Amino acid sequence: MQVPTFAKEIENATVPVGREATLSCVIYNLGNFKVAWVRVDTQTILTIDDMVITRSQRISVRHMTDASTWQLIIREVQSSDAGLYMCQLNTEPMTSHTAYLSVTVPPDIVDSESSGDVMVTEGQNTTLRCSATGHPLPVITWRREDGRPIQNHAVTVEGSVLHLTRIPRQNIGAYLCIASNGVPPSVSKRFMLRVQFPPSVTATNQLVGARQGDINITLECHCESFPKPVVYWLRHSTGDVVVNGVKHREEKRETNHYKVSMQLVFLHLEREDFMAYQCVCRNTLGIADSVVRLYQIHPVADDGDMNEVYSEADQQDGRGTGKEQLSSTWDG
């Protein structure tokens, strides 16, 4: 009687989770001997000849028409299916070949082991953590959502832990933890870093000159603050709040997470509008303000004609005639 022989080694297989895996065992001169597939780590007999022994509905066996190839089929592969499988012949002594089934699993971020959104005070340190599973083990990459450097001019940082030190207000924003392992799709988690600090205010121009009757004259200040501030304008001399109406319009625009541009627009200037105004920025950590003076420019008549008005700088560099005068008025 001829002895059965394996035609070749069984090839290892790598299959994404959820797909179908096939292991092929080619045997010559099988005769009356039987072929069995065995899960090595648990010593579980899966199939014998054309019969499925295991209770798993995902396991089947296929005997190819050439009568020499026996295939173990595992449908809807799970990560727990990874391991060593044996094609075994009931010869004396028993002969067998083995193959390894590797199951690739796309990355998945474990929220329970990862950080959430973070609030810190400017100048403090903090740590963001991102945990991910998958096979192969995922690589974790950090980057900012807006594409700006994270720190030390690095746009991306690798590792499951991101250390941020002496955090400035410029670091406010969304951070992304991206997990990838070559098995699509990659996944990400968004972390919001908020940096709180008391307000600061700067005026675009502290002196603004205009003529009575001018329209749409704008005073402007810029506030930096987090948490987001309440902004408003006061008449500096009286402390009265300037409210929207037929004479004034307040506007504000958020330019990023912590910057606000605030404007006070005079729709039609009247004499009583010329005074000092105070732009105020307030949050839960403090208050800041800046003063802007709106002064009146008085053109001076000469020989019955209205001359062009020059500033002091114009006169000093020779553009003035020497006859013109700059007259300005403000209250407060």
Automatic annotation (TrEMBL):
Stretches assigned to the Ig-like domain: 4-104, 107-188, 199-295
Disordered, as annotated region: 306-332
InterPro entries with a match to the protein in the record: Ig-like_dom, Ig-like_dom_sf, Ig-like_fold, Ig_I-set, Ig_sub, Ig_sub2, Neural/epithelial_adhesion
Keyword match Glycoprotein: yes
Gene3D superfamilies: Immunoglobulins
Subcellular location: Cell membrane
Primary localization class, coarse: membrane
Keywords from the named record: Cell membrane, Disulfide bond, Glycoprotein, Immunoglobulin domain, Membrane, Repeat, Signal
Pfam families per the UniProt record, alphabetical: I-set (PF07679), Ig_3 (PF13927)
Domain of life: Eukaryota
Annotated Gene Ontology cellular component terms: neuron projection; plasma membrane
Protein name per UniProt: Ig-like domain-containing protein
Biological source species: Daphnia pulex (Water flea)
